[in-house]
């Protein structure tokens, strides 16, 4: 599948990346996607996908409370914070 | 012989015999770092102060006659994508330059509980994406055998510091060969355990279904010792196997008589450098001399493994790395118009090119209309790859192959061509796709004196057989004793 | 034109587990910001989720209560999107293998039963909360709600009016509360819904284009939001316009909705199987053990009360409608209490106190055994109804056994006929005129005499015995 610059720009938007035309070129996504396209040669229609290599199932935790972290530790790495919260530009949705 | 040149098992015996102290070993290692780190550049950060404190604690335990682990008092380097409480964990990215986790990874906790001394955080490719450690935001690590060459990657720092005696052993992570390839390039022993043997809790995720943490050591005995220290069930990792584990040291038996070893023809094809091929065939011969049965066989699906690997790992990475958005931790751009601008600028400025490339590929592979052709298809191929290994292991106890088609390449030599770089992973990625254990041990040197490691692949959770065959090889060769001169 | 509205609801209910879905932080509403958080629920690098078993059990319980099939091998998936209240930038949810599918719930629309299909129920994690600053250009992120377990219940497009949708939501709410998987406090946001609405000409069996409305979080809001949307769509269609497939946001204060995003702007969530979590395998044994924890559903309970127990429709309705009363009542019945008497006590005097004290029947200081005992003492005639009310008041205060209270307060009736006869004789001796009055047809005399004897006995004489004894004497005189 040949990808268009438009598609690449759309993917960048989905990934929240700002790529200039030059960067798009230097990432050489066409070649990378062509490399991935190797799989299209193969017919695997009837094959079930493997999501996990191991056959472990039903891994659960009991519903028992463990003390939470100090708020200071939770917020320690935040680039902007105030009033015990992480600060972000105003959003409405 | 200087203390920093010794192995875990040598130092451990000396510590237990009270001939030396952990503080002395740690000082020796820190001295070595002072002496050669400028040349090697294997560390992102060195924690001298806390290391000496941990060494003191270890010494007290030993002095008190407590029964201690074999790694008690031993200096270890930890790859910088493994969280260490209170010590910056950067993933070699500008994005996490200032990130100090308030928690330990499971393996960091295990190292501490066992009395290990964490001397520093090892350099790596940014977010473990790369095969040369050149994509690190901070520095380029050099191969101790030739400072103009790469140490491999992504655990290049972990490999280089062990080869350069800047740590007695180290921890790396392996998503598609990131422990095994640098082990091959730097002539150390590197083990990628079976998926689920070592907890991933606290390992900053690259590709969740492929990542495993493993030890990088100076010899096979140390590998078994380090594996004993970090393997085991963790209730914080749902993919962690809850099974009874052997004492891996007891697997160290110098006997491979009757063992069946297969060499996949697909891993010995055109792209493999002649020197590498020669060394792997010599290793095969060695095994035959020791009484093993070695034969060539075909491992189908190898042709598709690389594409499947890059799709699966990039897709998972695109999701795993979405959390680095400038909000809760890590890099936030200085100027932005609104939320989306904040996201896009922080991520674009915080991530390097290779990371962006993988995020792009992964996002594309998961996006509406493409999922079936890429991600789902890759997971179907995964089923087929798993099956071809199952078939192989019906006939063989182990698979022998190169770890990489070449020896270490020049710094700057491959970085400009992503696809060329990806093609080099041909011998390692299938092991991760199938979740199997793989070990690389020193097997010789090419005509330029650069190390070549051989890879052994085992059945799931059969690390014992891997270690046994590796140990037998090591006992009958002396490649592991040849150290670089710096 | 006349349109028929076609409505489907996606209801999100927060589960009332002790802890969050993927970490062991407390699941509680109203805590100080960012105090119920850990590296896992705030999405710090390297952390991993481990599923809370209770969440699976609650979801299956809801599925069983809503007549669903339970998925034998379920999985969890990642739903990827960027938003500040979603720290991992993906929500762990379920995509193609939800835990429950193909159920239904019967609702009562003005006396008529209507069956609403349930497409699926899946588990997922809630997001955090954004607090918007009034003055500045900033929002504050509180991660406490991150990882609170949710079930999303998706209905078939079987609802045909705003009222039906409200009744459906009310029914769902009462069921979830009844089976104790969610407290469904809409004011705390623990029950929220997204609403899909489309219109089609009456008589048509083809679906029209639907809009999705978000942010509806009250029962009355649901009805109003749907009415508004039906009006909006009708107007467009009447003017020859077309309905766009879009997402709209309900503003409850303004009573209107606004466009949130068009079809072109729709999110591409890039769902894929969550590699950090293993499959959920559910076998018969597990399902049956969960089924065993299901309480009797309200409709079944009411049928039992009116049938087997012989209660009237109205009083059965009252008991079923109050969960804690029903629990207390069921216990009394189980212990062999007098059904009618207990039902009367619960709905009458006890209900009054429960209301006054603003408590539930679970908080009452005495036990179902105690209430049965009280009823039985009255039945045996040991105390009068009037005395029983005094005993009940004391039971609320002291939680002592009714028999002990009766003894302590000396409330037991005098049933000893010879003792009563002595008092009767005494009163009759003092009131000879009464015999004449009675003979002359003044039947009031009987009441007067009974009253006098009751007074003599300090209220403890058994009125039935007194009545009978005096009547016999008066009749004998009359006929002599």
Give the strand order, joined by hyphens, for the main sheet of chain C: 3-7-8-11-1-12-13-14-15
Q: Beta-sheet strand percentage of chain C?
A: 15-25%
Distance between the termini of chain A: 36 Å
Uncertain residue ranges of chain A: none
Give the chain pair forming the largest contact, with residue counts.
Answer: A-B, 52 and 69 residues
Short recap of the structure:
Helices cover 32% and strands 10% of the residues of chain A. Chain A is α+β, with helices and mostly antiparallel strands and 93 residues long.
What do these coordinates show?
The complex is a heterotrimer of chains A (93), B (486) and C (480). Chain A has 93 residues and is of the alpha+beta class. Chain A is built from 4 helices and 3 strands, in the order H-H-H-E-H-E-E. Chain A has a two-stranded antiparallel sheet with strand order 2-3. Helices cover 39% and strands 13% of the residues of chain B. Chain B has helices at 8-16, 22-40, 48-63, 106-113, 156-163, 180-186, 220-230, 274-289, 302-320, 339-350, 353-366, 372-395, 418-423, 429-434, 463-475, and strands at residues 43-46, 75-79, 117-122, 169-174, 189-192, 212-217, 260-264, 293-297, 398-402, 438-445, 451-457. In chain B, strands 1-3-2-4-6-5-10-11-9-7-8 form an 11-stranded mixed sheet, with helices on both faces. In chain B, helix 4 links the parallel strand 2 (75-79) and strand 3 (117-122). In chain B, helix 2 packs antiparallel against helix 3 (48-63), helix 5 (156-163) runs parallel beside helix 6 and helix 9 packs across helix 12. The N and C termini of chain C lie far apart (90 Å). With 480 residues, chain C is α+β, with helices and mostly antiparallel strands. Helix content of chain C is 40%, strand content 20%. Chain C contains 15 helices and 17 strands. Classes of the chains: A alpha+beta (93), B alpha/beta (486), C alpha+beta (480). The interface between A and B is large, with 52 and 69 residues. Strand 3 of chain A pairs antiparallel with strand 10 (138-142) of chain C.
